[in-house]
Amino acid sequence: METIIGIAGLAIMGVLLSLAFRKKKVIPALSTQNLQSILQQYVAFYRALNDEQKASFEQRVMQFLQKVPITGVKTTVEDVDKVLVGAGAIIPIFAFPGWEYRNIHEVLLYPGSFNEEFGQDGQDRNILGMVGNGPMQNVMVLSQQNVREGFTGSSDKHNTAIHEFVHLVDKSDGATDGLPEALIPHQYAQPWLKRIHEEMQLIREGRSDINYYGTTNEAEFLAVVSEYFFEKPAEMEKKHPELYALLKTIFLPGTPS
Asked: Which domain of life does this protein belong to (predicted)?
């Protein structure tokens, strides 16, 4: 979720996070065996890959984790958290071997949801993930609870980590606008935008099972339907064949129909 917050407020929160709330502990290096075990247990996308693809996925998750620190804020980061955040990062870009995120330097992991000022108390805590702006540029904040639930809740279409990393993919061309120009072939850009607005209208009319949050704007629509696409591909293909085909062209080009 992209949120514009006053620079002064963000600066204050950044200082508070840095000086008071970050809880860094020396955590043993993640072993290949533990990585594989967690991926096999929790990540359906990984389980569907062949052995060669699994080895590639493991390598890319490990490379991501070596470059991007995951810091606990009032919580302890465990191996399962690191692996699931890494999986959320790699799933949207797995079909693009040369892709590396250049717009993220750190992931802050909160124990639960938070508000727009990054507060963890009160009743206005309705944010599960956020890509920061201003002093928080290149920082992603995620709810530890919801990252875990996104991969263990096999009956839903939601995945907070995938959602936020799709925002980063979208943002890589300079604009978070629901049109990831780095991935989508030019000839599909207009059909994609047309399909976005058609489906938004169906959602507003109660004639779509896609999360209503997708009607917020084009960027949130992309992130929401990407969760659906990666979490429940067979269901999406059945219920939304045109939308599924377009998302497959964006995220999995060249794969068999």
From this structure: Bacteria
